[in-house]
Design goal:
Its cofactor is Mg(2+). Pfam families: Cation_ATPase, PhoLip_ATPase_C, PhoLip_ATPase_N. It is a multi-pass membrane protein. GO terms for molecular function: ATP binding; ATP hydrolysis activity; ATPase-coupled intramembrane lipid transporter activity; magnesium ion binding. This protein is an alpha+beta fold. 41% of the residues lie in helices and 17% in strands. The chain is built from 40 helices and 40 strands. The strands form 9 sheets. A 9-stranded mixed β-sheet has the order 16-40-39-38-17-32-37-36-33, with helices on both faces. Strands 19-18-31-30-29-28-27-26-25 form a 9-stranded antiparallel β-sheet, sandwiched between helices. Helix 11 runs antiparallel to helix 12. The longest helix is centred in the last third of the chain and has 40 residues. The N terminus is likely disordered.
């Protein structure tokens, strides 16, 4: 209130003139169901109406951002500050009008992130994070990105009810036919080839095949040269074609479904694809909604309908939608409806809908609670009738059908480095051949017609005798030799590797999905592998970023504590079943508590003293406060009561459906204490208060959003008194509470103390308050509410301003503490992951005390850790806190003093516990330990960083990010509290953009989508908050504890397998190419080949491909028991033991040796014989296949029947193919194999090749394993000894 006694809003330009002939709105008629305390929904519109707010009315940084005790103003000045700002936006968000150059952030998963302006200066965080998210190709998840112009539409869509012709004539809206397929019969071939040739390697092989078609370069047969590329393209095309055929079949089935459409006054069946905007449709129970419709009426006289949005957002709980009473009454009476709907243009936001309806001369607003989206199912409602507003591709479900961003594994990116070196080898070999050929031709240019391999003219008699024979001169022949060499050596870049990796990843995913140890019986959910591109990244995770609620905890809330009128309740709880007749008759002032009429689905513990207080007469302030406290819990929510019957107990069973587990727990608790919500409609609710039903008219509901962080409901009591009931986060409620006397001051202080106590116990807290509304305040609020709710521009902003008018001067009733228990196995999983060298960071929206308590219980934090807490309210303060912490603990050795370094060198590292032992006599700056972070693995195990989202607003700036990075990476544990979804993505990007470490983000809700998509690996939890996170993830599972097995077992296996697979493919193809290279050097650099064209093609496609795939899927270096027992074995992935550049060069040296042996042993063995080149070619073919398969067999750790069949069977298949090819008279190698196998020299030569080629490798493996064994080798020997 101002000094003049008027509400402060009257003194600003925000006030609305109250019309003299104002007619009061009786009821809201619109009750949105998407408000919850776990998923915030709001818009990002600039608050233009606040641009003229006086500067002195803007809250200062310290007053708007600190976690203050729940106490009112101490002076008139401060009181004015509470009223002016707290009544509007008392939390830490600035009300300053955004500057023109301010960029707004995108919304993630339908949850929009707002600019966190605390000091009043525009922040650069949102623009920078937005740019990084775009650069990282992070797409918005299916729940939708809200366009900035949604609420500024100047050309709204006009829908004429039951007049589709008039609706569609002018605008030509989309038909209701959907299409999710990518191709048609005509476009399949060109579009599919275009997509496939996005891979550069495919373009390379296409160029090779094209070069081979030229006569001067025809090294292989023209058809044969196309064979490898055609196989790869055909396999992929068949797979894509089959998938698209299934999409066509699904689309056809969907489009041909039927719905009842109003035609000529009667509802008649009509195919979905023919439904048009403006038509009126009727949906019966359990049917699916064919398009986005505005609800006109339901089988329920109150206009309420229940829907399930499982197909849309994955949530299985029921939600309510409401028809306006104006139309619902007409539908109930059987009348015809005609009118006009003005709605926003189609957009992706499934949680917002802005529209107005003109009906019988009246204009009233429509919101998200009045629209039912395509894909939803009608439940517990006989029928509904609605008008179509969006159809086909313009429905919100179809607009949100964009796929998650594709990701590439780190190992695949490293593979490009090795591919580059192989390309260098290829070019060098081709250059050597070309140069050698040029020199050879220059030296023998006068003898070309009398030497083998080259000639200028035809020798044979005939019409071409004496004519030139494809000789183009020395220069051109040299150039053609270079191109021909590329064709001959083309498999140095293995085209088969790409399809092999896809098949191996598919097989790995099959076994991960089938792992019974990752099956969650409570939710009946198996492990899901939604991305096949990053399996091996699971074996190299360095950082895990985890949500808390629903990820580490069960997200099944239980009401534990209550603070009512400053008194704490809940220390000792009894089951409600024990409170039978006379059970508490001995309690003071209470005769007996009658048996409850309502039977809850689950039992709630109650406090006897609180029960006693509630059963007293309402003749004292404490009794009245307790009554209003539980009335607020029962009324201020969007919970839907589902009634049933319990024949055994002769009670009415009641269950509560809602989007927020917090709200369900609060309503159930209110019922346990005698305040049972038993009926809810769009206009009223009914609460059973200890057996007496109390009907309350709902005049308005202000949804929970991430700016206000609270929710309020305006209700009228039977005695015509009007109250506003409010619940919200303590930080958002502290500035809007009134303190009129010392009693209020005492209640606030004690309540704040209880809130701190609840948080230290790990409980989620809410503050409950209320106030009476005068007739004048009610009238003004209703006018403002009507004006705001019917606005098509900035509706949410105006509604927040309207809510601020009544959410002030509130009387504190109490606070609640809800327990969200840890999931099973979380503490053990985190400890194992930490032993594996993985850093676990928890990013949560909960308050700091709650997060710390959960961190201790899940072993993320330990009691011996030094906690570094960053709670800054300005950029300078945050900088000082970070630099102070770094200075105190000497976290940068380059900045440490010399004496500090000396003391640091005295420390001894405890390997078993993975932390540093600090001697008692160690001295350092400020008498605190000094920690060096220059060397990996020496981070301080005794440090934990705890930081809040308010500080991150300032820290996620360019000049502070590096400081935060140095501090955070030096700590063993990091806990971020009160963080917004986009800040979670910013934290992930902080690590991802500054290191090459692989990051993993895991969460269960829509607020985790941005984090999941930003990380290298995203994991979704199938939890209580729907499936938004699952749909955006790469992998999905039922519980956090499965992450331990996923990483330590499957991640380790996948990385070992794929790393070996890539290096083996490089070796397998390189040894073949080097063998051809040595042959060409001995044949006057002529690029001729001793191998047939088919043998060259079949080598990597048929002869050697199957063993690679089988081993890549099934081989195991260690058992799962060993990997789980010794988590440190996972660090092999961190050290890149299975795939690194030095290992690549070692393999290339080994390959070089084996290729020399492979070529020269037969060369010298048959040097004195008259064997032809085709016979040598058959020998080299079978020898190289046997060699690479025995090479593979030396590295196999797990032999199975199928592995034996693949390895030795490939050799048998190679012999079979050679027998077939050598039996064809048209081929130059006809019958050569039959002559060779009769010779003992042939078999001895193969034996010598195998022994001599593999002997150095065998000796190196033996020596290395004896003198320098790896952790994996030691663990493997231990496994063998245990057997």
């Amino acid at each position: 209130m101002t000094s003049g006694g008027k509400p402060l809003l009257h003194s600003t330009e925000l006030s609305y003139p109250v019309p003299r002939n104002f007619s009061r709105v009786g009821s809201l008629g619109c009750l949105c169901t998407n408000n919850s305390f776990t998923s915030s929904v709001c818009d990002d519109s600039p608050m233009s109406e606040l641009s003229n707010m006086r500067e002195e009315e803007i809250t200062s940084v310290e007053e708007t951002n600190q976690l203050k005790p729940l106490e009112g103003p101490a002076s008139g000045a401060t009181k004015r500050l509470f009223y002016s700002v707290g009544s509007r936006y008392p939390d830490h968000l600035s009300l300053e009008h955004p500057s023109r150059d301010r960029k707004r952030l995108v919304s993630w998963g339908g949850m929009e992130q707002h600019t966190f302006e605390i000091s009043g200066t525009p922040s650069r965080v949102q623009g920078k994070l937005q740019e990084r998210l775009n650069n990282s190709k992070v797409l918005c998840h299916k729940s939708g990105q809200l366009d900035d112009n949604i609420f500024r539409e100047q050309n709204p869509r006009l829908i004429h009810i039951d007049d589709p012709r008039r609706t569609n004539d002018k605008y030509e809206f989309a038909s209701n036919e959907i299409r999710t397929s990518k191709y048609t019969l005509v476009s399949f071939l060109p579009k599919n080839l275009f997509v496939q040739f996005h891979r550069v390697a495919y373009l390379y092989f296409l160029a090779i095949a094209a070069l081979n078609q030229l006569p001067p370069l025809a090294v292989f047969g023209r058809t044969v040269s196309l064979f490898p590329l055609l196989i790869v393209l055909s396999v992929t095309a068949v797979k894509d074609g089959y998938e698209d055929w299934r999409r066509h079949r699904s689309d056809r089935k969907e489009n041909n479904r039927e719905a009842l459409v109003l035609q000529s006054g009667h509802f008649e069946p009509k195919k979905w694809k023919k439904i048009q905007a403006g038509e009126v449709v009727k949906i019966c129970a359990d049917e699916t909604i064919p398009c986005d419709i505005v609800l006109l009426g339901t089988s329920d006289s109150s206009g309420i309908a229940f829907i399930q949005t499982m197909n849309l957002d994955g949530e299985s709980n029921l939600k309510t939608r409401y028809a306006r009473q104006e139309t619902a009454s007409v539908v109930a009476d059987g009348g015809s409806i005609s009118g006009l709907v003005r709605c926003e243009q189609p957009n992706r936001n499934i949680y917002e809908f802005t529209a107005n309806m003109e009906f019988r001369g009246h204009i009233f607003p429509l919101s998200q609670s009045n629209i039912i989206l395509r894909g939803c199912q009608l439940k517990n409602t006989e029928w509904i009738i609605g008008v179509v507003v969006y159809t086909g591709q313009e429905t919100k479900a179809m607009l949100n059908s964009a796929a998650s961003p594709s990701k590439r594994s780190k190992l695949e990116s490293y593979m490009n480095r090795e591919t580059f070196w192989l390309s260098i080898f290829l070019l060098v070999m081709c250059a050597v051949v070309a140069l050698g050929m040029g020199l050879w031709l220059e030296h023998h240019k006068e003898q070309l017609d009398s030497l083998p391999y080259y000639r200028k003219r035809y020798f044979t008699r005939g019409r071409k005798y004496g004519k030139p024979y494809r000789y183009y001169g020395i220069a051109m022949e040299t150039f053609f030799s270079f191109l021909s060499s590329i064709i001959v050596f083309q498999i140095m870049i293995p085209i088969s590797l790409y399809i092999t990796m896809e098949l191996v990843r598919f097989g790995q995913s099959y076994f991960m999905i089938g792992d019974k140890h990752m099956y969650d019986s409570s939710t009946d959910s198996r492990f899901q592998c939604r991305s096949l591109n990053i399996n091996e990244d699971l074996g190299q995770i360095r950082y895990i970023f985890s949500d808390k609620t629903g990820t580490l905890t069960q997200n099944k809330m239980e009401f534990r504590r209550a603070c009512v009128y400053g008194k704490n309740y809940g220390a000792s709880l009894l089951s409600a079943e024990s409170l039978q007749d006379g059970n508490i008759a001995g309690l003071k002032g209470v005769a007996a508590v009658p048996r409850g009429r309502w039977k809850l689905k689950s039992e709630i513990g109650v406090d006897l003293q609180l029960i006693e207080l509630l059963h007293k007469d309402l003749n004292g302030e404490e009794q009245i406060a307790a009554h209003e406290f539980f009335l607020t819990l029962a009324a201020c929510n969007t919970i839907i009561p589902i009634l049933g019957s319990d024949s055994r107990e002769q009670n009415e069973a009641i269950d509560y459906q809602g989007e927020s587990p917090d709200e369900q727990a609060l309503v159930a608790a209110a019922s346990a204490y005698g305040y049972t919500l038993c009926e809810r409609t769009s206009g009223h609710i009914v609460v059973d208060v200890n057996g007496q039903k109390l009907r309350l008219d709902v005049l308005g509901l202000h949804e929970f959003d991430s700016i206000r962080k609270r929710m309020s409901i305006v209700i009228r009591f039977p005695d015509n008194s009007v109250k506003v009931l409010v619940k919200g986060a303590d930080t958002s409620m502290s500035g809007i509470l009134v303190k009129e006397n010392e009693r209020d001051d005492y209640i606030m202080i004690t309540t704040q103390g209880h809130l701190t106590q609840y948080s230290s116990l790990g409980l989620r807290t809410l503050v409950v308050a209320a106030r009476d509304l005068t007739d004048a305040e009610l009238e003004e609020w209703q006018y403002r509410y009507e004006d705001a709710s019917t606005s098509l521009t900035d509706r949410s902003t105006k509604l927040r301003q309207t809510a601020a008018f009544i959410e002030r001067n509130l009387r504190l009733l109490g606070a609640t503490g809800i327990e969200d228990k840890l999931q099973d196995g979380v503490a053990d999983a985190i400890e194992s992951l930490r032993q594996a060298g993985i850093k676990v960071w928890v990013l949560t929206g909960d308050k700091q005390e709650t997060a710390i308590s959960i961190g201790l219980s899940c072993k993320l934090l330990t009691t011996d850790m030094h906690q570094i807490i960053i709670n800054g309210n300005s950029e300078d303060e945050c900088r000082n806190l970070i630099l102070g912490a770094k200075s105190k603990y000497c976290l940068k050795s380059s900045n440490c003093h010399v004496e500090c370094r000396v003391e640091c060198s005295k420390w001894k590292k405890d390997v078993t516990k993975d932390y540093l032992d600090i001697p008692d006599d160690s001295k350092c700056v400020n008498r605190t330990p000094c920690i060096s972070v220059e060397k990996e693995g020496t981070e301080a195990a005794s440090l934990a960083l705890i930081i809040d989202g308010n500080s991150l607003v300032y820290i996620l700036e360019k000049d502070l990010e590096s400081e935060l990075f140095d501090l955070a990476t030096s700590c063993k544990a990091v806990l971020c509290c009160r963080v917004a979804p986009l800040q979670k993505a910013g934290i992930v990007d902080l690590i991802k953009s500054r290191t090459d470490d692989v990051t993993l983000a895991i969460g269960d809700g829509a607020n985790d989508v941005s984090m999941i998509q930003m990380a290298d690996v995203g994991v979704g939890i199938c939890g209580q908050e729907g499936r938004q996170a699952v749909m955006a993830s790469d992998f999905a599972m039922g519980q956090f504890q499965f992450l331990k097995r996923l990483l330590l077992v499957h991640g380790h296996w996948n990385y070992q397998r794929v790393g070996y697979l890539v290096l083996y493919n490089f070796y397998r193809n390189a040894v073949f190419v080097f063998m051809l290279f040595w042959y060409i050097l001995c044949t006057a650099f002529s690029t001729t080949s001793a191998l047939t064209d088919w043998s060259s093609v079949f080598y990597s496609v048929i002869y050697t491909s199957v063993p690679t795939i089988v081993v890549g899927i099934l081989d195991k270096d260690l058992s799962h028991r060993t990997l789980l027992k010794y988590p440190k074995l996972y660090e092999a992935g961190h050290r890149h033991e299975s795939y690194n550049l030095p290992l690549f060069w070692i393999i290339m040296l080994d390959t070089l040796w084996q290729s020399l042996v492979l070529f020269y042993v037969p060369f010298f063995a048959y040097s004195t014989s008259s064997i032809d080149i085709w016979s040598l070619g058959s020998l080299w073919t079978i020898a190289v296949v046997i060699l690479v398969n025995i090479h593979l067999a030396m590295d196999i750790r797990r032999w199975m029947v199928i592995v034996h069949a693949a390895v030795w069977g490939s050799i048998v298949i190679t012999y079979g193919c050679l027998l077939v090819l050598d039996s064809i008279p048209a081929f130059p190698n006809y019958w050569t194999i039959y002559h060779l196998v009769k010779s003992s020299t042939y078999w001895l030569t193969i034996f010598l090749i195998i022994v001599v080629a593999l002997l150095p490798r065998f000796l190196c493996k033996v020596v290395y394993q004896i003198f320098w064994p790896s952790d994996i080798q030691i663990a493997r020997e231990a496994e063998i000894l245990r057997k």
